[in-house]
Amino acid sequence: MSVPKFKRFNLDVYKPGKSRIRNIRDIIKLSANESALGVSPNAQSVIKSKDSKLFRYPDPQSKALRKTISKIFACDENRVICGAGSDEIIQMLCQLFLNPKDEVIVPRYSFLMYRIYSNIVGAKVIFSEEVNYKISVKEILRKVTKKTKIVFIANPNNPTGTYLNYKELKLLRDKLRKNILLVVDDAYYEYMKNKDYKSGLDLFKSKENVFILRTFSKIYGLASLRVGWGYGSKKIIKELNKIKPPFNVNLMAQLAAEAALKDKNFINKSIKHNISEAKKIKNFLSKFNIYTNEVTANFLLLDFDNCFITAERFYRKLQTKGIILRNTFTGYKIKNRLRLTIGSVKENSKFMKATESILN
Ligand SMILES: *Cc1c(COP(=O)(O)O)cnc(C)c1O
Fold it and tell me: If 0-12 CB within 10 Å is exposed, 13-18 middle and 19+ buried, where does residue 347 land?
């Protein structure tokens, strides 16, 4: 059969954190930075109880959700757009801004969706080098050309777990040409209690040339519902709304996201859990000469350079015990490292037991 000729994309396709192992039923998935404590109970009860009108199309503007967002984060609801995950907002930003041959700067070890969506619209992706696995403002600025349109960064960054402090982040905006859009992805900001950290939204709420990304997939525990939001200038939001699929965020996602935002108890519990468990695991691993970044988001990047076993071998041995980490070589191309999501107390202790049995 013949088909019309389709476009050819030269892409490294996104590979999600692995969630299955052959022949093992009860797996422990610590590969996708999902919520350690599951779904926010507030959201859970909305999902269960709501006599929701699923036969109706959802509100295309996610009005109620945007209003709740604006109240909780003291920001302008008219500058908020909701998406089917922050993923979709990254895609829309690329569609809106990028022409073939425009340049986008992303740190080499950054979230893969920035380069994937930029590539799809034909833009040229320029990598800035990290210094010691941390984003370097200087290196980003060195990559700027006349063709640069967008700089994407996640702060803290996935998968390195490092972050720019607020002075460095401000410096980046100050030194970057005014008509370059700085996209700051706050995906993990809720977990951040580090003193010199400020979220992109807190720093740049009133700026026109900064666009902020937020997600419900991490601390709020709604990864499967696909919902996130973006914050930008009124002009940008207006144009994004023109290209947005009309019913992109489903009703359940809108309702659950609102409920999760109001679930202060669950959020505080998740933050406390993350800090204490991450510290515990970091300490534990250092006994085996596996070192990590300082505690920041809900994951750690494990460095095997001083350990007698390679990251790859450890990864495979853990899998035979039903535990999945994120291999950072595929996709990110980071050698001899693994990314570990902080799980529940039970999952973490199983991980530590398995580690002991492999390394002793
Ligand atoms: C997990 C993650 C997201 C969330 O993506 P969604 O599409 O909202 O699930 C966004 N940015 C970064 C850096 C992430 O790690």
Answer: middle
Cα of 86 vs centre of ligand 1, distance in Å, is 6
Expressed in angstroms and rounded, the spacing between residue 308 Cα and the centre of ligand 1 is: 33
Question: Tens digit of pLDDT for each residue in 40-53?
Answer: 999 999 998 867 78
What's the predicted TM-score (pTM) here? 0.96
Q: Give, for ligand 1, the residue of 31, 86, 190, 220 to mutate: max count of ligand atoms closer than 8 Å to Cβ.
A: 86
Residue 63, domain extent: 41-263
Among the atoms of ligand 1, which is closest to the Cα of residue 84? 7
Q: Quick one: 215 and 92 in the same domain?
A: yes
| Sheet containing 181-185: order of strands | 80-83, 228-231, 210-215, 181-185, 148-154, 103-107, 124-128
- Distance, in Å, from the CA atom of 289 to the CA atom of 253, rounded to the nearest integer, reads 42
129 and 227 together in one domain: yes
β-pair type (28-30, 323-327):
parallel
